[in-house]
Design a protein that fits this description.
The structure is a homotetramer. With about 130 residues, the first copy, chain A, is mainly alpha-helical. The first copy, chain A, has 2 domains: about 15-75, Arc Repressor Mutant, subunit A, CATH 1.10.10.10; about 85-120, no CATH class. The first copy, chain A, is about 55% helix and about 5% strand. Chain A is built from 5 helices and 2 strands, in the order αααββαα. In chain A, strands 1-2 form a two-stranded antiparallel ribbon. In chain A, a hairpin with a 3-residue loop joins strand 1 and strand 2 (about 75). The longest helix of chain A is centred in the last third of the chain and has 21 residues, at about 85-105. Chain A starts with 13 loop residues before the first helix and ends in a 6-residue tail after the last helix. Chains in contact: A-B, A-C, B-C, B-D, C-D. Chain B binds a DNA duplex (15 and 15 nucleotides) through helix 3.
Amino acid sequence: MIAFNLDPKSGAPFYRQIIDQIRYGIVTGSLAVGEQLPTVRALAVELKVNLNTVSKAYKELEIQKVLETHQGTGTFIGPVSVRIAPAEREAKLKSICAEFYTIAASYGFKKEEMIAELKRIEGGAR
Amino acid sequence: MIAFNLDPKSGAPFYRQIIDQIRYGIVTGSLAVGEQLPTVRALAVELKVNLNTVSKAYKELEIQKVLETHQGTGTFIGPVSVRIAPAEREAKLKSICAEFYTIAASYGFKKEEMIAELKRIEGGAR
Amino acid sequence: MIAFNLDPKSGAPFYRQIIDQIRYGIVTGSLAVGEQLPTVRALAVELKVNLNTVSKAYKELEIQKVLETHQGTGTFIGPVSVRIAPAEREAKLKSICAEFYTIAASYGFKKEEMIAELKRIEGGAR
Amino acid sequence: MIAFNLDPKSGAPFYRQIIDQIRYGIVTGSLAVGEQLPTVRALAVELKVNLNTVSKAYKELEIQKVLETHQGTGTFIGPVSVRIAPAEREAKLKSICAEFYTIAASYGFKKEEMIAELKRIEGGAR
DNA sequence: GTGGTCTAGACCACT
DNA sequence: GTGGTCTAGACCACA
Protein backbone atom coordinates (compact mmCIF):
# COMPACT_ATOMS: atom_id res chain seq x y z
CA MET A 1 0.00 0.00 0.00
CA ILE A 2 0.89 3.59 -0.21
CA ALA A 3 -0.29 6.85 1.29
CA PHE A 4 -0.91 9.44 -1.34
CA ASN A 5 -0.52 13.08 -0.59
CA LEU A 6 -1.36 15.86 -3.03
CA ASP A 7 -0.11 19.39 -2.62
CA PRO A 8 -2.13 21.95 -4.58
CA LYS A 9 0.54 24.58 -4.06
CA SER A 10 3.45 22.62 -5.45
CA GLY A 11 2.77 23.83 -8.95
CA ALA A 12 2.96 20.31 -10.27
CA PRO A 13 -0.37 19.11 -11.65
CA PHE A 14 -2.19 16.51 -9.62
CA TYR A 15 -1.90 13.78 -12.20
CA ARG A 16 1.87 14.21 -12.19
CA GLN A 17 2.08 14.10 -8.44
CA ILE A 18 0.17 10.83 -8.49
CA ILE A 19 2.50 9.42 -11.11
CA ASP A 20 5.57 10.46 -9.16
CA GLN A 21 4.27 8.97 -5.94
CA ILE A 22 3.45 5.67 -7.55
CA ARG A 23 6.89 5.46 -9.15
CA TYR A 24 8.41 6.43 -5.86
CA GLY A 25 6.39 3.77 -4.05
CA ILE A 26 7.70 1.19 -6.48
CA VAL A 27 11.37 2.01 -6.20
CA THR A 28 11.20 2.18 -2.43
CA GLY A 29 9.34 -1.10 -2.24
CA SER A 30 6.13 0.28 -0.75
CA LEU A 31 4.45 -1.04 -3.83
CA ALA A 32 5.35 -4.59 -4.73
CA VAL A 33 5.41 -6.06 -8.23
CA GLY A 34 2.02 -7.42 -9.09
CA GLU A 35 0.30 -5.56 -6.28
CA GLN A 36 -3.11 -4.16 -7.04
CA LEU A 37 -3.60 -0.41 -6.95
CA PRO A 38 -6.77 1.29 -5.70
CA THR A 39 -9.44 1.61 -8.34
CA VAL A 40 -9.59 4.88 -10.18
CA ARG A 41 -12.82 5.70 -8.44
CA ALA A 42 -11.54 4.82 -4.97
CA LEU A 43 -8.39 6.85 -5.37
CA ALA A 44 -10.30 9.79 -6.77
CA VAL A 45 -12.53 9.80 -3.71
CA GLU A 46 -9.61 9.41 -1.33
CA LEU A 47 -7.68 12.27 -2.91
CA LYS A 48 -10.77 14.36 -3.56
CA VAL A 49 -9.89 14.85 -7.17
CA ASN A 50 -11.68 14.28 -10.42
CA LEU A 51 -11.94 10.74 -11.81
CA ASN A 52 -10.23 11.85 -14.99
CA THR A 53 -7.23 13.03 -13.05
CA VAL A 54 -6.52 9.63 -11.55
CA SER A 55 -7.37 8.02 -14.82
CA LYS A 56 -4.82 10.12 -16.64
CA ALA A 57 -2.10 9.20 -14.17
CA TYR A 58 -2.80 5.48 -14.48
CA LYS A 59 -2.94 5.74 -18.23
CA GLU A 60 0.42 7.44 -18.48
CA LEU A 61 2.03 4.84 -16.23
CA GLU A 62 0.46 2.15 -18.33
CA ILE A 63 2.01 3.65 -21.42
CA GLN A 64 5.35 3.61 -19.64
CA LYS A 65 4.67 -0.07 -18.83
CA VAL A 66 4.92 0.60 -15.14
CA LEU A 67 1.31 -0.45 -14.60
CA GLU A 68 -0.87 -3.04 -16.20
CA THR A 69 -4.61 -2.76 -16.47
CA HIS A 70 -6.63 -5.93 -16.71
CA GLN A 71 -10.13 -5.21 -17.87
CA GLY A 72 -12.64 -6.02 -15.18
CA THR A 73 -10.00 -6.92 -12.62
CA GLY A 74 -8.10 -3.76 -11.78
CA THR A 75 -4.76 -2.07 -12.13
CA PHE A 76 -1.52 -3.71 -11.08
CA ILE A 77 2.15 -2.93 -10.75
CA GLY A 78 3.87 -4.33 -13.84
CA PRO A 79 6.94 -6.56 -13.94
CA VAL A 80 10.06 -4.88 -12.67
CA SER A 81 12.07 -5.58 -15.80
CA VAL A 82 11.00 -2.66 -17.90
CA ARG A 83 11.41 0.11 -15.36
CA ILE A 84 14.29 1.97 -16.95
CA ALA A 85 16.67 0.56 -19.46
CA PRO A 86 20.11 0.71 -17.82
CA ALA A 87 21.40 2.58 -20.85
CA GLU A 88 18.85 5.30 -20.36
CA ARG A 89 19.39 5.49 -16.66
CA GLU A 90 22.44 7.68 -16.64
CA ALA A 91 21.09 9.97 -19.34
CA LYS A 92 17.89 10.41 -17.35
CA LEU A 93 19.80 11.34 -14.23
CA LYS A 94 21.87 13.84 -16.14
CA SER A 95 18.84 15.49 -17.73
CA ILE A 96 16.89 15.70 -14.50
CA CYS A 97 19.86 17.15 -12.64
CA ALA A 98 20.67 19.62 -15.37
CA GLU A 99 17.15 20.96 -15.42
CA PHE A 100 17.06 21.22 -11.66
CA TYR A 101 20.37 23.00 -11.61
CA THR A 102 19.32 25.53 -14.24
CA ILE A 103 16.16 26.42 -12.40
CA ALA A 104 17.79 26.71 -9.00
CA ALA A 105 20.70 28.69 -10.39
CA SER A 106 18.33 31.15 -12.03
CA TYR A 107 17.19 32.07 -8.56
CA GLY A 108 20.75 32.63 -7.51
CA PHE A 109 21.20 29.52 -5.43
CA LYS A 110 24.71 28.16 -5.25
CA LYS A 111 25.49 24.53 -5.78
CA GLU A 112 26.47 24.17 -2.15
CA GLU A 113 23.10 25.45 -1.04
CA MET A 114 21.31 22.99 -3.28
CA ILE A 115 23.34 20.07 -2.04
CA ALA A 116 22.97 21.11 1.57
CA GLU A 117 19.21 21.32 1.15
CA LEU A 118 19.09 17.96 -0.59
CA LYS A 119 21.03 16.32 2.23
CA ARG A 120 18.52 17.73 4.65
CA ILE A 121 15.59 16.06 2.90
CA GLU A 122 14.24 13.00 4.69
CA GLY A 123 17.18 12.88 7.07
CA GLY A 124 19.13 10.52 4.87
CA ALA A 125 17.28 7.49 6.15
CA ARG A 126 16.95 6.21 2.67
CA MET B 1 24.26 41.50 -23.01
CA ILE B 2 22.92 38.03 -23.16
CA ALA B 3 22.17 35.40 -25.76
CA PHE B 4 18.61 34.22 -25.59
CA ASN B 5 17.67 30.78 -26.69
CA LEU B 6 14.20 29.25 -26.80
CA ASP B 7 13.58 25.55 -26.86
CA PRO B 8 10.10 24.72 -28.16
CA LYS B 9 10.47 21.14 -26.94
CA SER B 10 11.28 21.97 -23.36
CA GLY B 11 7.67 22.06 -22.36
CA ALA B 12 8.19 25.35 -20.58
CA PRO B 13 6.26 28.18 -22.20
CA PHE B 14 8.29 30.69 -24.17
CA TYR B 15 7.62 33.59 -21.88
CA ARG B 16 8.81 31.55 -18.92
CA GLN B 17 12.00 30.56 -20.68
CA ILE B 18 12.67 34.22 -21.33
CA ILE B 19 12.04 35.04 -17.68
CA ASP B 20 14.34 32.28 -16.51
CA GLN B 21 17.12 33.35 -18.84
CA ILE B 22 16.92 36.94 -17.69
CA ARG B 23 16.96 35.91 -14.03
CA TYR B 24 19.85 33.63 -14.77
CA GLY B 25 21.69 36.39 -16.61
CA ILE B 26 21.29 38.64 -13.61
CA VAL B 27 22.55 36.23 -10.99
CA THR B 28 25.51 35.25 -13.12
CA GLY B 29 26.38 38.85 -13.80
CA SER B 30 25.84 38.72 -17.57
CA LEU B 31 23.21 41.36 -17.01
CA ALA B 32 24.30 44.30 -14.93
CA VAL B 33 22.11 46.47 -12.75
CA GLY B 34 20.66 49.30 -14.77
CA GLU B 35 21.53 47.71 -18.07
CA GLN B 36 19.01 48.08 -20.86
CA LEU B 37 17.43 44.93 -22.20
CA PRO B 38 16.70 44.39 -25.87
CA THR B 39 13.53 46.19 -26.93
CA VAL B 40 10.40 44.12 -26.95
CA ARG B 41 10.31 44.30 -30.72
CA ALA B 42 13.96 43.43 -31.18
CA LEU B 43 13.79 40.41 -28.91
CA ALA B 44 10.57 39.25 -30.52
CA VAL B 45 12.26 39.31 -33.90
CA GLU B 46 15.39 37.63 -32.61
CA LEU B 47 13.47 34.82 -30.96
CA LYS B 48 10.87 34.66 -33.71
CA VAL B 49 8.00 34.97 -31.31
CA ASN B 50 5.17 37.41 -30.99
CA LEU B 51 5.61 40.85 -29.43
CA ASN B 52 3.14 39.98 -26.72
CA THR B 53 5.10 36.95 -25.64
CA VAL B 54 8.19 39.01 -24.92
CA SER B 55 6.04 41.70 -23.40
CA LYS B 56 4.48 39.21 -21.04
CA ALA B 57 7.87 38.04 -19.83
CA TYR B 58 9.10 41.60 -19.22
CA LYS B 59 5.85 42.46 -17.50
CA GLU B 60 6.07 39.59 -15.05
CA LEU B 61 9.61 40.53 -14.13
CA GLU B 62 8.51 44.09 -13.70
CA ILE B 63 5.77 43.06 -11.27
CA GLN B 64 8.39 41.10 -9.38
CA LYS B 65 10.53 44.24 -9.35
CA VAL B 66 13.34 42.55 -11.22
CA LEU B 67 12.98 44.90 -14.17
CA GLU B 68 11.95 48.49 -14.58
CA THR B 69 10.19 49.68 -17.67
CA HIS B 70 9.99 53.29 -18.66
CA GLN B 71 7.46 53.83 -21.37
CA GLY B 72 8.99 55.36 -24.42
CA THR B 73 12.48 54.66 -23.15
CA GLY B 74 12.98 50.96 -22.70
CA THR B 75 13.30 48.16 -20.20
CA PHE B 76 16.10 47.98 -17.66
CA ILE B 77 17.47 45.69 -14.98
CA GLY B 78 16.17 46.98 -11.66
CA PRO B 79 18.18 47.66 -8.51
CA VAL B 80 19.61 44.56 -6.95
CA SER B 81 17.90 45.08 -3.63
CA VAL B 82 14.67 43.17 -3.82
CA ARG B 83 15.59 40.26 -6.03
CA ILE B 84 13.99 37.69 -3.76
CA ALA B 85 12.63 38.48 -0.35
CA PRO B 86 14.98 36.71 2.07
CA ALA B 87 12.01 35.01 3.68
CA GLU B 88 10.91 33.57 0.36
CA ARG B 89 14.37 32.58 -0.64
CA GLU B 90 14.66 29.61 1.65
CA ALA B 91 11.12 28.48 0.94
CA LYS B 92 11.87 28.64 -2.77
CA LEU B 93 14.99 26.55 -2.38
CA LYS B 94 13.12 23.98 -0.34
CA SER B 95 10.30 23.67 -2.84
CA ILE B 96 12.60 23.40 -5.83
CA CYS B 97 14.74 20.77 -4.12
CA ALA B 98 11.76 18.81 -2.89
CA GLU B 99 10.27 18.58 -6.34
CA PHE B 100 13.58 17.60 -7.84
CA TYR B 101 14.11 14.97 -5.21
CA THR B 102 10.66 13.48 -5.69
CA ILE B 103 11.10 13.18 -9.42
CA ALA B 104 14.61 11.80 -9.27
CA ALA B 105 13.72 9.38 -6.49
CA SER B 106 10.73 8.15 -8.47
CA TYR B 107 13.18 6.91 -11.05
CA GLY B 108 15.06 5.07 -8.36
CA PHE B 109 18.03 7.39 -8.11
CA LYS B 110 19.61 7.58 -4.68
CA LYS B 111 20.46 10.82 -3.02
CA GLU B 112 24.17 10.13 -3.37
CA GLU B 113 23.78 9.70 -7.12
CA MET B 114 21.94 12.99 -7.42
CA ILE B 115 24.54 14.85 -5.41
CA ALA B 116 27.39 13.27 -7.31
CA GLU B 117 25.83 14.25 -10.61
CA LEU B 118 25.19 17.79 -9.37
CA LYS B 119 28.79 18.17 -8.29
CA ARG B 120 29.84 17.16 -11.76
CA ILE B 121 27.86 20.00 -13.37
CA GLU B 122 29.85 23.04 -14.51
CA GLY B 123 32.89 22.16 -12.44
CA GLY B 124 31.92 24.48 -9.64
CA ALA B 125 33.35 27.59 -11.25
CA ARG B 126 30.27 29.53 -10.30
CA MET C 1 -19.33 38.03 -4.51
CA ILE C 2 -18.63 41.39 -5.98
CA ALA C 3 -20.12 43.63 -8.62
CA PHE C 4 -17.54 44.64 -11.19
CA ASN C 5 -17.86 47.86 -13.04
CA LEU C 6 -15.58 49.18 -15.77
CA ASP C 7 -15.38 52.80 -16.73
CA PRO C 8 -13.90 53.28 -20.20
CA LYS C 9 -13.47 56.99 -19.55
CA SER C 10 -11.46 56.65 -16.37
CA GLY C 11 -8.19 56.51 -18.24
CA ALA C 12 -7.14 53.50 -16.22
CA PRO C 13 -6.79 50.39 -18.37
CA PHE C 14 -9.49 47.77 -17.97
CA TYR C 15 -7.23 45.13 -16.50
CA ARG C 16 -6.06 47.59 -13.85
CA GLN C 17 -9.61 48.52 -12.93
CA ILE C 18 -10.35 44.85 -12.44
CA ILE C 19 -7.27 44.46 -10.27
CA ASP C 20 -8.20 47.47 -8.15
CA GLN C 21 -11.74 46.26 -7.67
CA ILE C 22 -10.61 42.84 -6.57
CA ARG C 23 -8.09 44.31 -4.14
CA TYR C 24 -10.76 46.64 -2.87
CA GLY C 25 -13.21 43.78 -2.50
CA ILE C 26 -10.69 41.88 -0.44
CA VAL C 27 -9.83 44.67 1.97
CA THR C 28 -13.48 45.54 2.48
CA GLY C 29 -14.39 41.93 3.07
CA SER C 30 -16.69 41.55 0.05
CA LEU C 31 -14.31 38.87 -1.10
CA ALA C 32 -13.46 36.26 1.49
CA VAL C 33 -10.24 34.28 1.71
CA GLY C 34 -10.51 31.14 -0.36
CA GLU C 35 -13.56 32.36 -2.24
CA GLN C 36 -13.75 31.52 -5.89
CA LEU C 37 -13.76 34.39 -8.35
CA PRO C 38 -15.88 34.41 -11.47
CA THR C 39 -14.33 32.33 -14.21
CA VAL C 40 -12.26 34.21 -16.72
CA ARG C 41 -14.87 33.58 -19.35
CA ALA C 42 -17.80 34.59 -17.19
CA LEU C 43 -16.22 37.83 -16.12
CA ALA C 44 -15.17 38.62 -19.66
CA VAL C 45 -18.76 38.23 -20.82
CA GLU C 46 -20.12 40.22 -17.89
CA LEU C 47 -17.74 43.11 -18.48
CA LYS C 48 -17.89 42.78 -22.25
CA VAL C 49 -14.14 42.62 -22.58
CA ASN C 50 -11.80 40.09 -24.06
CA LEU C 51 -10.83 36.90 -22.26
CA ASN C 52 -7.20 37.96 -22.23
CA THR C 53 -7.97 41.19 -20.46
CA VAL C 54 -9.52 39.41 -17.52
CA SER C 55 -6.80 36.82 -17.66
CA LYS C 56 -4.14 39.50 -17.45
CA ALA C 57 -5.72 41.00 -14.35
CA TYR C 58 -5.97 37.62 -12.62
CA LYS C 59 -2.42 36.81 -13.61
CA GLU C 60 -0.97 39.97 -12.12
CA LEU C 61 -2.77 39.35 -8.85
CA GLU C 62 -1.49 35.81 -8.89
CA ILE C 63 2.09 36.99 -9.27
CA GLN C 64 1.50 39.31 -6.34
CA LYS C 65 0.19 36.30 -4.41
CA VAL C 66 -3.21 37.89 -3.93
CA LEU C 67 -4.93 35.17 -5.94
CA GLU C 68 -4.31 31.51 -6.50
CA THR C 69 -5.22 29.86 -9.74
CA HIS C 70 -5.59 26.16 -10.13
CA GLN C 71 -5.71 25.14 -13.73
CA GLY C 72 -8.90 23.33 -14.58
CA THR C 73 -10.46 24.35 -11.30
CA GLY C 74 -10.69 28.11 -11.11
CA THR C 75 -9.28 31.21 -9.48
CA PHE C 76 -9.43 31.85 -5.75
CA ILE C 77 -8.63 34.51 -3.21
CA GLY C 78 -5.28 33.59 -1.66
CA PRO C 79 -4.43 33.42 2.02
CA VAL C 80 -4.49 36.75 3.76
CA SER C 81 -0.91 36.53 4.92
CA VAL C 82 1.16 38.22 2.26
CA ARG C 83 -1.16 40.89 0.98
CA ILE C 84 1.46 43.61 1.13
CA ALA C 85 4.87 43.15 2.64
CA PRO C 86 4.89 45.34 5.77
CA ALA C 87 8.02 47.06 4.53
CA GLU C 88 6.36 48.01 1.27
CA ARG C 89 3.16 49.06 2.93
CA GLU C 90 4.46 52.29 4.37
CA ALA C 91 6.36 53.15 1.22
CA LYS C 92 3.21 52.59 -0.81
CA LEU C 93 1.20 54.88 1.44
CA LYS C 94 3.84 57.57 1.23
CA SER C 95 4.04 57.44 -2.54
CA ILE C 96 0.28 57.47 -3.02
CA CYS C 97 -0.12 60.38 -0.62
CA ALA C 98 2.74 62.33 -2.11
CA GLU C 99 1.31 62.05 -5.59
CA PHE C 100 -2.13 63.03 -4.40
CA TYR C 101 -0.74 65.98 -2.52
CA THR C 102 1.26 67.22 -5.48
CA ILE C 103 -1.71 67.10 -7.78
CA ALA C 104 -4.14 68.69 -5.34
CA ALA C 105 -1.64 71.37 -4.36
CA SER C 106 -1.03 72.19 -8.01
CA TYR C 107 -4.66 73.25 -8.19
CA GLY C 108 -4.13 75.48 -5.21
CA PHE C 109 -5.90 73.37 -2.64
CA LYS C 110 -4.59 73.67 0.87
CA LYS C 111 -3.84 70.70 3.02
CA GLU C 112 -6.73 71.52 5.32
CA GLU C 113 -9.13 71.48 2.41
CA MET C 114 -7.89 68.08 1.28
CA ILE C 115 -8.20 66.61 4.73
CA ALA C 116 -11.64 68.12 5.27
CA GLU C 117 -12.84 66.65 1.99
CA LEU C 118 -11.34 63.27 2.82
CA LYS C 119 -13.09 63.20 6.17
CA ARG C 120 -16.35 63.86 4.38
CA ILE C 121 -15.97 60.76 2.19
CA GLU C 122 -18.04 57.74 3.16
CA GLY C 123 -18.90 59.08 6.60
CA GLY C 124 -16.07 57.21 8.24
CA ALA C 125 -18.00 53.97 8.53
CA ARG C 126 -14.98 52.09 7.26
CA MET D 1 11.99 80.85 -10.95
CA ILE D 2 11.44 77.29 -10.01
CA ALA D 3 13.51 74.19 -9.45
CA PHE D 4 12.19 71.24 -11.40
CA ASN D 5 12.67 67.76 -10.16
CA LEU D 6 11.65 64.66 -12.08
CA ASP D 7 11.26 61.28 -10.45
CA PRO D 8 11.41 58.39 -12.93
CA LYS D 9 10.07 55.99 -10.34
CA SER D 10 6.95 57.91 -9.44
CA GLY D 11 4.98 56.21 -12.16
CA ALA D 12 3.71 59.55 -13.40
CA PRO D 13 4.97 60.38 -16.89
CA PHE D 14 7.54 63.13 -17.12
CA TYR D 15 5.32 65.53 -19.00
CA ARG D 16 2.71 65.29 -16.24
CA GLN D 17 5.28 65.88 -13.53
CA ILE D 18 6.37 69.02 -15.33
CA ILE D 19 2.78 70.21 -15.62
CA ASP D 20 2.13 69.58 -11.95
CA GLN D 21 5.27 71.38 -10.87
CA ILE D 22 4.48 74.43 -12.95
CA ARG D 23 0.95 74.60 -11.60
CA TYR D 24 2.33 74.12 -8.14
CA GLY D 25 4.86 76.89 -8.68
CA ILE D 26 2.08 79.21 -9.70
CA VAL D 27 -0.23 78.60 -6.76
CA THR D 28 2.62 78.89 -4.29
CA GLY D 29 3.85 82.08 -5.90
CA SER D 30 7.23 80.75 -7.00
CA LEU D 31 6.11 81.58 -10.50
CA ALA D 32 4.64 85.07 -10.91
CA VAL D 33 2.01 86.09 -13.42
CA GLY D 34 3.67 87.17 -16.64
CA GLU D 35 6.98 85.55 -15.70
CA GLN D 36 8.87 83.90 -18.52
CA LEU D 37 9.46 80.17 -18.36
CA PRO D 38 12.66 78.49 -19.58
CA THR D 39 12.62 77.71 -23.27
CA VAL D 40 11.58 74.23 -24.25
CA ARG D 41 15.12 73.48 -25.29
CA ALA D 42 16.68 74.84 -22.09
CA LEU D 43 14.32 72.94 -19.85
CA ALA D 44 14.80 69.75 -21.83
CA VAL D 45 18.53 70.01 -21.34
CA GLU D 46 18.19 70.83 -17.66
CA LEU D 47 15.88 67.90 -17.01
CA LYS D 48 17.68 65.60 -19.41
CA VAL D 49 14.50 64.70 -21.19
CA ASN D 50 13.35 64.78 -24.77
CA LEU D 51 12.34 68.08 -26.35
CA ASN D 52 8.94 66.65 -27.14
CA THR D 53 8.33 65.89 -23.50
CA VAL D 54 8.72 69.49 -22.40
CA SER D 55 6.86 70.64 -25.44
CA LYS D 56 3.92 68.43 -24.59
CA ALA D 57 3.76 69.80 -21.05
CA TYR D 58 3.82 73.43 -22.21
CA LYS D 59 1.21 72.69 -24.84
CA GLU D 60 -1.19 71.17 -22.39
CA LEU D 61 -0.83 74.10 -20.01
CA GLU D 62 -1.40 76.42 -22.90
CA ILE D 63 -4.64 74.62 -23.70
CA GLN D 64 -5.64 75.06 -20.08
CA LYS D 65 -4.82 78.77 -20.46
CA VAL D 66 -2.26 78.57 -17.69
CA LEU D 67 0.56 79.49 -20.04
CA GLU D 68 0.79 81.78 -23.03
CA THR D 69 3.19 81.29 -25.86
CA HIS D 70 4.25 84.32 -27.86
CA GLN D 71 5.87 83.28 -31.10
CA GLY D 72 9.51 84.28 -31.14
CA THR D 73 9.47 85.63 -27.61
CA GLY D 74 8.93 82.69 -25.32
CA THR D 75 6.47 81.11 -22.94
CA PHE D 76 4.90 83.06 -20.08
CA ILE D 77 2.63 82.49 -17.11
CA GLY D 78 -0.85 83.57 -18.17
CA PRO D 79 -3.17 85.95 -16.29
CA VAL D 80 -4.32 84.58 -13.00
CA SER D 81 -8.00 85.02 -13.74
CA VAL D 82 -8.58 81.82 -15.63
CA ARG D 83 -6.89 79.42 -13.28
CA ILE D 84 -9.92 77.49 -12.10
CA ALA D 85 -13.46 78.73 -12.28
CA PRO D 86 -14.66 78.92 -8.67
CA ALA D 87 -17.64 76.81 -9.60
CA GLU D 88 -15.35 74.03 -10.75
CA ARG D 89 -13.08 74.31 -7.80
CA GLU D 90 -15.09 72.28 -5.35
CA ALA D 91 -15.97 69.64 -7.91
CA LYS D 92 -12.29 69.29 -8.76
CA LEU D 93 -11.34 68.81 -5.14
CA LYS D 94 -14.03 66.20 -4.70
CA SER D 95 -12.97 64.25 -7.75
CA ILE D 96 -9.29 64.31 -6.86
CA CYS D 97 -9.96 63.24 -3.31
CA ALA D 98 -12.38 60.51 -4.33
CA GLU D 99 -9.87 58.99 -6.72
CA PHE D 100 -7.12 59.16 -4.16
CA TYR D 101 -9.32 57.59 -1.55
CA THR D 102 -10.33 54.73 -3.82
CA ILE D 103 -6.77 53.88 -4.69
CA ALA D 104 -5.47 54.08 -1.14
CA ALA D 105 -8.41 52.11 0.21
CA SER D 106 -7.80 49.36 -2.32
CA TYR D 107 -4.50 48.80 -0.62
CA GLY D 108 -6.23 48.54 2.71
CA PHE D 109 -5.18 51.88 4.12
CA LYS D 110 -7.58 53.43 6.57
CA LYS D 111 -8.68 57.02 6.33
CA GLU D 112 -6.81 57.87 9.51
CA GLU D 113 -3.58 56.54 8.02
CA MET D 114 -4.02 58.63 4.90
CA ILE D 115 -4.71 61.78 6.86
CA ALA D 116 -1.83 61.17 9.22
CA GLU D 117 0.52 60.71 6.30
CA LEU D 118 -0.80 63.83 4.59
CA LYS D 119 -0.25 65.88 7.71
CA ARG D 120 3.30 64.65 7.80
CA ILE D 121 4.03 65.94 4.30
CA GLU D 122 6.05 69.16 4.18
CA GLY D 123 5.64 69.77 7.92
CA GLY D 124 2.61 71.96 7.44
CA ALA D 125 4.69 74.99 6.56
CA ARG D 126 2.42 75.78 3.68
C1' DG E 1 10.95 54.34 -31.74
C1' DT E 2 9.75 52.79 -26.98
C1' DG E 3 6.38 50.09 -24.21
C1' DG E 4 1.08 49.42 -23.13
C1' DT E 5 -3.54 47.89 -24.03
C1' DC E 6 -7.02 45.44 -26.28
C1' DT E 7 -9.22 42.32 -29.54
C1' DA E 8 -10.23 37.96 -31.96
C1' DG E 9 -9.36 33.60 -32.36
C1' DA E 10 -6.80 29.22 -32.08
C1' DC E 11 -5.01 25.43 -29.59
C1' DC E 12 -3.25 23.20 -25.31
C1' DA E 13 -3.26 21.38 -20.35
C1' DC E 14 -5.75 20.10 -16.39
C1' DT E 15 -9.87 18.58 -13.69
C1' DG F 1 -15.50 23.58 -18.52
C1' DT F 2 -11.39 25.56 -16.15
C1' DG F 3 -7.17 28.46 -16.94
C1' DG F 4 -2.71 28.96 -20.00
C1' DT F 5 -0.20 30.12 -24.10
C1' DC F 6 0.48 32.09 -28.44
C1' DT F 7 -0.42 34.68 -32.64
C1' DA F 8 -1.66 38.62 -35.59
C1' DG F 9 -2.79 42.96 -35.80
C1' DA F 10 -4.63 47.48 -34.39
C1' DC F 11 -4.31 51.62 -31.85
C1' DC F 12 -2.60 54.45 -27.93
C1' DA F 13 0.81 56.89 -24.71
C1' DC F 14 5.33 58.49 -23.92
C1' DA F 15 10.10 60.32 -24.96
